[in-house]
Structure formats: C-alpha cells, structure tokens
Design brief:
By secondary structure, the protein is of the alpha+beta class. The protein folds into two domains: about 15-60 and about 80-235, Cupredoxins -  blue copper proteins (Immunoglobulin-like), CATH 2.60.40; about 240-395, Cytochrome c-like domain (Cytochrome Bc1 Complex, Chain D, domain 2, Orthogonal Bundle). It is built from twelve helices and twelve strands. The chain has helices at about 1-5, 25-60, 65-70, 80-110, 115, 225-235, 280-285, 295-305, 345-355, 355-360, 365-370, 380-395; strands spanning about 120-125, 130-140, 145-150, 150-155, 160-165, 170-175, 180-185, 190-195, 200-205, 215-225, 335, 340-345. The strands form three sheets. A five-stranded mixed β-sheet has the order 3-2-1-5-8. Helix 9 crosses helix 12. It binds dinuclear copper ion (CUA). Dinuclear copper ion binds near residues 126, 170, 205, 208 and 209. Dinuclear copper ion (CUA) binds near residues 126 and 213.
C-alpha cells in the first residue's frame, strides 16, 4: 500500500496500457485520488484491528496445561464508552470516504460549469464488436463526420461523449482518462473526459456483450488544438485516390503472410515499454507509404465493389452508401483494425479480410458475408492482398 502510493508503478507492473493507476486527465485523477483515500482509510483500520488481534492472541494465549483447563474469566457484557467510541470511529471513517466520494460523483458527472461552453461533443455508438464515433462537424451534404474505433480528441479540452448502442449493452472505458459508463439500449447516457496532454490511449468495452466482447477495443488519440483542427479538416475530405497510369499492370504481389488462428496482432510498436511512443506511430500512420503500387490499388478498389464490401461499408467519394458497418473513408490512417484488435498493416488487413472468423469469432463480416448462411463471399489470397493495398492507400 505504502509502496503503491509511491512512484515505482513500473516495479509493480501497473503501468500497462489499461492501468487505472496512471491518470492522464482530471476525471481519471479525481477517481484515482478517491481510490487512494479509500485505500488509506481501510489500511488504517486494518492496522488497528490487526494490532488488537495480535495483542490479544499473544497476551491471552494458554501458556501451560493449567491455563488450558482453567475456567474462562468472568465475561463482560458491553462497555458503553467502548461501543460509542467504535460507532463514532466508524462514522468518522465513512465520512472521510463519503465527502470526497460525493464531490467526485458531482465532478465526474458532467463538464464543470466554468468549462461547459468549451466542451467538445462527440457521440459514441457501440456495435457488436466495434465503436462508431460521430463528430459535431458536418461533411459536404450535411451528414455528421464519422469514424470508427479510433476516437481523436483535442487535448486540454473537456470532451463530452454521448453514449449509444445499436444492439446490446456495452460499456465505454478509457482507463487512463475516465471510469466506465454503460451504453444502454433505448437510453441516452454520457460521460466526459479530458486528456491533459497529447497522447495515445487504450480503450475497452467493459460490459459483457457477446462472443468477442473481450476484443471489443478502441483507441483515443489526443492532439494539440492545431493538429486536431488539421485532422478534422482532412477527415472531412472524401477518400484519397491513387491514380494508376493507363494500361499499367500490378508489380510483383507481396507474399501473403500466414497467421495461426487467434494469433496476436500487435507489434512491438505498441509495447508497454515506456520508450515506445505510440502517438508518433499514429502520426506516421497518417502518411501515405513511400512506395505504392497504383495498379494493385486500382485492382483492390474494383474488388471492393465486386466482392460486395460496399453493401455494408462506405468509402466516401468512392463507393458505398449504406454504411452501417465501419466507415472506411480514411481507414489507412488508423493504427488499428477489427475493433482495435489488430495493427493496421497490409498483412493484418489481408488476414482480417480473408479469415475474419479466425480473428474475431461471431463478427458480422463473417456472419453476413462469408458464412454458409450469408452471401458466401470467397476472397482468394491474391484478392485479399489487392484489397489490403487499396484500404491501406485510404489515408
Ligand atoms: Cu461491447 Cu463488451
């Protein structure tokens, strides 16, 4: 406990991506300080009760045969002073916890009034098993700007997140920024959070919601105000197009990597090692690859239609209009795919496209498109490589 409140969280393995022991914003800090208050109060009670118990055990233990067979001493029945003192001490302990608890409940409920006018409003919707984010900015045509699985927010500014779900109960949780709040069918819920500094944070659905609940993840990327404004402006643009020269043919196709079922999908770029800078990796992901095979990308773009991907996904400016599944307009600029489960690389994209059921059991892409009850789409390895090249180009 004493060491817990000390600094060496690394020693105690408490610095992971989803630790609540590191607070990166005021809501998480308020919750963490309340945790420590409760810990200290219970720690003091533990020490006092433990000391009395130890004293009584040593002082009154039988020391001889005669002791063991002696009559028990005269039994007392209550001491008003002791009882009143114990009640007073219990009430006092509860008050110590209750005052900051109530203050914390009011503080974390909604953005403090003084900052309310500055709050940025986003709607997050839970789906089995991914998150959709709707921004207040409108794209051409008046619809809201939407994104999936990566929530980009302005750092140093309160963000109020409306919580919705289209199916079952999910729970929205970014451990380093704020405690979890449920997304409940037919009921509006919300929370607020704020990242003090630009950073990259891990989020997780925290309410059991079906087969792939454990891998229903997301990320929060906090950017400085200027970078955030630039990101929003770019997201509002339609999908990037890579022009292929007339008559060009695709170069040698990259070999499709092989993966085992349930194989881990993240590289050391996302390790717990504090020297790794995931925000820098996210920024790198925004840039187009140095070498792109325009003909291969064109082939993937055509496959996006012929393989009926467009029936569920939109690539704004290219194709797809229904868009109940994740919007892919700028998917190439995200660091994660498959609900935050896999790193967004061409190899992992091809893996996810060709074997969704092995990556995420029960997912809709498999159930609706690939399974025996669905459209029975078949994506060959070479097609998966072309589709991955196309999606990767959508920066
Ligand atoms: Cu969504 Cu668990």
């Amino acid at each position: 406990m004493i060491l817990l409140t000390g600094c060496d969280l690394n020693f105690w393995k408490m610095q992971g991506h989803q630790t609540t022991m590191v607070a990166s914003g005021p809501v998480a800090a308020s919750q963490l300080s309340l945790f420590y208050v409760t810990c200290w109060v219970t720690f003091v009670i533990f020490v006092i009760v433990g000391a009395v118990l130890a004293y009584a055990t040593v002082k009154f233990k039988a020391r001889s045969d005669a002791d063991e067979h002696a009559e028990p001493p005269a039994q007392g029945h209550g001491n008003p002073m002791v009882e009143i003192a114990l009640i007073a001490a219990s009430v006092f302990s509860l008050v110590i916890i209750a005052v900051p608890t109530l203050r914390g409940i009011w503080y974390t409920h909604d953005v403090p009034e003084a900052q309310a006018a500055n709050a940025y409003n986003i709607t997050a919707t839970g789906y089995q098993w991914w998150f959709k984010f709707e921004y207040p900015e409108k794209i051409d045509g008046g619809a809201a700007l939407v994104s999936g699985n990566e929530l980009v927010i302005p750092a140093g500014r309160p963000v109020r997140i409306q919580l919705r779900t289209t199916d079952v109960i999910h729970s929205f949780w970014v451990p380093k920024l704020a405690g979890k709040v449920d997304m409940i069918p037919n009921r509006g819920n919300f929370l607020w959070l704020q990242a003090d500094e630009p950073g990259y944070f891990w989020g997780q659905c925290a309410e059991y919601c079906g087969d792939s609940h454990a891998v229903m993840r997301f990320r929060v990327v906090a950017l400085a105000p200027i970078e955030f404004a630039a990101w929003v402006a770019h997201q509002k643009e339609p999908a990037r197009s890579v022009a292929a020269a007339a008559g060009a043919t695709a170069g040698p196709r990259p070999q499709l990597a092989t993966f085992k079922k349930n194989e881990y999908g993240f590289s050391e770029k996302w390790s717990d090692d504090p020297s790794v800078n995931p925000l820098k990796n996210w920024l790198d992901q925004q840039k187009p690859a140095a070498t792109e095979d325009a003909a291969l990308i064109a082939e993937g773009k055509a496959l996006f239609t012929t393989k009926t991907c467009l029936a569920c996904h939109s690539v704004r400016g290219h194709t797809g209009a229904f868009g109940w599944a994740p919007d892919l307009t700028h998917i190439g600029a995200r660091t994660t795919i498959a609900g935050g489960l896999l790193e967004n690389t061409p190899a992992q994209l091809a893996r996810w496209i060709s074997h969704p059921e092995q990556v995420k059991p029960g997912n809709k892409m498999w159930a609706l498109g690939y399974s025996d009850t669905g459209m029975k789409i078949k994506v060959s390895d070479t097609e998966a490589v072309a589709l991955a090249a196309y999606l990767t180009s959508l920066k």
